[in-house]
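Working notes for the structural subgroup meeting. M.R. asked for a predicted model of this chain before we commit to crystallization trials. I am recording the input and output together here so anyone reviewing the notebook later can reproduce the run.

Input as submitted:
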Amino acid sequence: MNFSFIYTFSVILKEQNVKYFCVKNMIIWILNSESGVKLLYKSFLKTDADEDIVSGFLSAFYHFSMVEFHESLESIEMGGLRWSYILEPKFNLLFVAADTKDIKTEMLLGKLNVIRKAFINEYESVWIKKGKTWDGDLNVFSPFLKTIEDYNTQWEEVETIAHVADYFDILGVFQQILIMFRNILENKMYAKSKNEIIDLIDKSYTTIGNKKKFKNQAELQNITFSKESWFNIIDINLIKCEKKLVLDYLETMLTEIVQSLRKVKGDNLCFKYFSEEGIYAYIYNNMKLLKDLNLDLFFLELFLLL
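Returned structure, recorded in token form:
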């Protein structure tokens, strides 16, 4: 199979100094599929690429795929991005979207399809009036940039909501486990063991908070602990905080709590306490959620490998 064209296009992207700094923000091209002329271009990524040069090669690359592979190209990863294409042969239009590779192809194609339908609905009458051609003054399409911006704003809001919902689930899981730990300390132990374990947890809380990657992180200040009131993690600003950082912190803290319990009471008693308090039942009954949140392996290793 001849990959020389793909290689050439990747080189052009590099030569055009295509640099991207954001995540899940698209670049959109709407092209005349016959001539390769750019009708509209909108980028939500910071890039120094020459949009006209890239536009020409996008059209050429699409036609190359039709000849070389004898089928329509929908999506490809190239130049560090995911590229999706939708051809509208009736109107001689080619719609192209690029985004970072972490976005799913289905989602990128879905967004591009929304833009395709909106553009055709808006400009079909113009195409007919021009004699079924897109030649002429291209400024007539400029108002559609606002439509693309409005769609992007809506998608960002939806993604933010999904991001927050995911966070609520994660914090809910950790909060429930922390409540179970508190119940074990309050109901299963004499004062001496309880105080010894809480002292160890208090020291760990201070040590973890002073680690370089956690120190002076504003949102982590909202994860509080005291010997009297235990842990509180519900005051985190879910929209502004960095998910990976918070999750890493909570996993580290939970691991230290288990280690403190094991150090004072031993593995056998800990297994008995965890079972009686319902921790194992909780993990089993919520395994699907834990898998969806990528927490299943962490909790299985933490509680089952005693």
